[in-house]
Amino acid sequence: MAVPPKETPLLMSLNRSKSHAAFARACQLIPGGVNSPARAFGAVGGEPLFIASGLGQHLTDIDGHVYLDYIGSWGPMILGHRHPRVIAAIDEALARGTSFGAPTEAESGLAEQIIDAVPSIEKVRMVSSGTEATMSAIRLARGATGRDRILKFAGNYHGHGDSLLVAAGSAAATLGVPNSPGVTAGTAKDTLVLEYNDCSQLEEAFAAHGQDIAAVIMEPVVGNMGLVDPAREFLLAARQLTERHGSVLIFDEVMTGFRLAYGGAQERCGITPDMTTLGKIVGGGLPLGAYGGRADLLDHVLPAGKVFQAGTLSGNPLAVAAGSATLAELKEHAPYADLERRGSRLADGLKHAAEAAGLPATVARVGSMLTLFLQPGRLGDGATGFPVVDWATASQSDTRRYARFFWGMIDRGIYLPCSQFEALFFSIAHTDADIERTLVAAQETLAEVAAHEN
Ligand SMILES: *Cc1c(COP(=O)(O)O)cnc(C)c1O
User: Among this protein's residues, is 148 annotated catalytic?
Assistant: First the structure.
């Protein structure tokens, strides 16, 4: 929901004239001025900042302002920008050539790292994005089961493949409807869309359609409606129902893989899917995705089997080098306890800052992913924060309030997600002092947001 800039009075106190000019130029050339819509600041009003460079936990825009980065390229940069080990690996690969269209040993090296890390993965195929990974995983599930239907959950994002850009029909467990012009009704009808965390809807859907369902695809911790942590019973129900009905359970760990634990959300929850999709961190900041899982399933992929999937730049040497170095660093230094400790401090501090400002809020967090859901009303008037468990509860957030918060933080040099419905990420480069600085900025900004509304 776009908020007009005049509604956000905390906006634009810094001079951003170069970003403004760059955006005007880009809008003439590129639809909406951006190569991916999440970058456009549409959900908070105003114009995107154009980035000149990143280093460690910081971004510098083309007007020379430095920001503490809580986007991390929307997930990949868990080591921070320009991590020396990653840059060295890219340099080394670059010296040998950028693409060959023939296998390299480094691809098997990265495959070994992925298989070693992710509990469900026995074999893995590399692609160039998360979208490609989920599209390919679904084709494989359909090809292997001989079934057409897939089941997904509202508020989960799996990239922009047609069969995943589908919204729920009018009643639960009915046929999906296109969620974008250009997705055909024929494609959408093979996708069922249910509410996340709802075990009884899931049971009903399997009772009605179980023998037709090729796959259930889900984010095992959701980052794409803001952060939503599933109930364990819900994940267990998905595991048991798919097993019982011969459907493939796909955990989409494009965001959570190597982020919530080295082995992803599945390591953390101890539930093993049949297939897993990866992206973001696995490419270390270069374009790389992957899908993997049970060897008997993966052996259906051409040329081992008959399910077609290919890519000119798949397993690209630069991307493989960056991903491999990133995974090696994460495995050797196991930063997850530190990330957990800093995340916990950040979550507590944000919760207190909202309370001090009299604003109802829920802070949802797992590891280094977090969302401050700003919710409607005032604490003094009897409103309270409520848990966010699915899209129905997430979508009750006060997005105008979030927009004001976002811009107030930008003015204080803190770059948060430009939408209430995106999780923030931090990296191993973020220090305790960075977290404290963020909390001071949040206290000031939330107090200002509350005062502005009086
Ligand atoms: C980002 C994301 C994708 C899509 O990955 P791209 O590399 O943007 O195509 C798919 N699934 C999840 C869970 C994601 O967060």
Answer: no
Cβ–ligand 1 contact at 419 (below 6 Å): no
Q: Is the omega angle on the peptide bond into residue 37 within 30 degrees of 0, that is, cis?
A: no
Same domain? For 389 and 255 the reply is no
**205, part of any domain:** yes
**Domain range enclosing 207:** 84-333
To the query of whether residue 351 is one of the catalytic residues in this protein, the response is no
Q: Mean per-residue pLDDT for 139-164? A: 97
- For the chain, first and last CA: distance in Å? 23
Cα gap 362→450, rounded to integer Å: 16
Cβ count within 10 A of residue 151? 26
Q: pLDDT tens digits, residue range 225-260?
A: 999 999 999 999 999 999 999 999 999 999 999 999
Last residue of a domain, one of 298, 333, 368: 333
- Looking at 70, 123, 152, 157, which residue is catalytic? 157
Whether 136 is in the pocket of ligand 1, judged by its Cβ within 6 Å, is no
Q: Is 398 a catalytic residue?
A: no
Query: Please, which residues have CB within 8 angstroms of residue 341's CB and are 6 or more apart in sequence?
Result: none
Residues 49-67: tens digit of each pLDDT: 999 999 999 999 999 999 9
How many CB atoms lie under 10 A from the CB of residue 53?
A: 12
Q: Determine the distance separating the centroid of ligand 1 and the alpha carbon of 224, expressed in angstroms.
A: 9
Kindly report the protein residue whose alpha carbon is nearest to atom 6 of ligand 1: 130
Residue with tokens 């390229």: 73
Predicted confidence (pLDDT) per residue in 291-322, tens digit: 999 999 999 999 999 999 999 999 999 999 99
Residue 313 burial by Cβ neighbours in a 10 Å radius (0-12, 13-18, 19+): middle
